[in-house]
Amino acid sequence: MTDRSGSDVLGELEPSQVRVRFPPSPTGLLTVGNIRSALFNWAFARHYGGKLVLRIEDTDTARNTEESYRYTYDALRWLGLNWDEGPEAGGELGPYLQSERMDIYADVVTKLLAAGKAYHCYCSQEELDQRREAARTAGQHSGYDGHCRDLPPEQLQAYVDEGRRPVVRLRMPDHPIVFDDLVRGEITFLPENLGDYVLVRANGYPLYPLVNPVDDALMEITHVLRGEDLLSSTPRQIALYEALAEIGVGSGRTPRFGHLPFVMGEGNKRLSKRDKGSGLTEYVERGFLPEGLLNYLALLGWSIAEDRDVFTMAEMVEAFDIRKVNSNSARFDPKKCEAINAAHMRMLPRDEFAERMIPFLAGAGLLPEQPTEAQLAVLHAAVPLVQERMNMLSESVDMLGFLFVDDASFTIDPDAAAKVLTGDASTVLDVSAKALADVEWTTEAIEAALRAALIEGLGLKPKNAFGPVRVAISGRRISPPLFESMELLGREKSLHRLELARRTS
């Protein structure tokens, strides 16, 4: 087994020669598994000063839309996972859309056939099924049995005369395929478990096991970091890389592989794109920070240190070592993901935190997309009140909405009213309004006046004294610190809301 503790990750390569790729399909939304794969490739490339290639697997043209391409590019840019070559970035080894590379694949297949590295297979599906069932019954391997591998010319012609349309299969080697996985160590696949596989369908459509290795070879990819689910296809692809090298396609170098562990969801099942919490869009809408989400996803199989969970992307790039990725499946924990995101929110400078809240407040109609100077002043002043209390940016709507909603639109949450604005609440609100009528409108003066009137004057406990005032001011039972909130809201609005609440209590 290769010693994975040394410099074998690069072999004879210079660090700057590292080239990895992220090949999403524009037929659906990016999932957390996709993003983690992109992140590890990005961190690997940045760690060594190499290149990240974005290559789009769009050969399924019936399902592709212009919006799906744009979504992929915008999503990666939102995450900060910039690519060095690919769509919109350019590069000398394109095109980077597989749909624009069909002539390349056809030419490679022609060369493979001419060199005897591949062959036409005329077996019908019914014949394949029959032979596979017979093999299973006999307790033998049920993969393709090589029936068409070395057919005599007259039999081939007979199939052609019948009008059969052949697939193209790769001629697999008859020796074990052994490779050193950068995550899992040495892996061996025996030839009896590796039948000749299909490269091109009978309709001429090139398949994934053909196009990805061809693209890797021609784009000079040095390392392939991808999900564990693709491990079983690796020996077949290695065989194709070797065949491509023999016919002069690409650099002649077989990439190094590293297969990343599964991301598991509820019930210890592999997280599916249909599961809640698996899609990127959900995290964008909930107001996760890209750096917070990426930090958590990095922890699904890798860590920067045993006693440290929170780090920046720059720190990850500096420390990233693919050999330290754990091969065991990683469980996605939504609560920890939120906690990591919250930690990154605390790390933001206050001005930046305010700026990042604006799109959510604007989306709720509480602020214009370009707030006024007065609105910005209130928002920036509110940051110290909420930055330590929020886990996601979307919480700014409920947390700070009361500061920006106009009087005509302000409402009190019915549940809060039912639980708090009862009993002596009207008395509390009336006394509060009178106590505040003439005080200087500062946090300190507001607090002193309310404590004197409600706690000392009425003999109430703080919860019973300030609960009705909080609901009156914010419309909710939970809000930023009350006295600071009232100072930001202003005297006129505060007194108006106390009166409004008193009439409804």
UniProtKB/TrEMBL annotation:
GO molecular function annotations of the record: ligase activity
Alphabetical UniProt keywords: Aminoacyl-tRNA synthetase, ATP-binding, Cytoplasm, Ligase, Metal-binding, Nucleotide-binding, Protein biosynthesis, Zinc
Cofactor(s) recorded in Swiss-Prot or TrEMBL: Zn(2+)
Location of the Glutamyl/glutaminyl-tRNA synthetase class Ib catalytic domain: 17-336
Major location (coarse): cytoplasm
EC number in record: 6.1.1.17
Binding-site residues for ATP, renumbered to this chain: K273
Catalytic activity: tRNA(Glu) + L-glutamate + ATP = L-glutamyl-tRNA(Glu) + AMP + diphosphate
Domain Aminoacyl-tRNA synthetase class I anticodon-binding: 352-501
Primary enzyme class: ligase
Motif ('KMSKS' region): 270-274
Note on how the cofactor is bound: Binds 1 zinc ion per subunit.
Gene3D superfamilies: 1.10.10.350, Glutamate-tRNA synthetase, class I, anticodon-binding domain 1 (1.10.8.70), HUPs (3.40.50.620)
Pfam families per UniProt: Anticodon_2, tRNA-synt_1c
Residues the entry annotates as binding Zn(2+): C121, C123, C148, D150
SUPFAM superfamilies membership: An anticodon-binding domain of class I aminoacyl-tRNA synthetases (SSF48163), Nucleotidylyl transferase (SSF52374)
Subcellular location, record wording: Cytoplasm
General function of this protein: Catalyzes the attachment of glutamate to tRNA(Glu) in a two-step reaction: glutamate is first activated by ATP to form Glu-AMP and then transferred to the acceptor end of tRNA(Glu).
Subunit structure, interactors included: Monomer.
Family of the protein in this entry: Belongs to the class-I aminoacyl-tRNA synthetase family. Glutamate--tRNA ligase type 1 subfamily.
Protein name according to UniProt: Glutamate--tRNA ligase
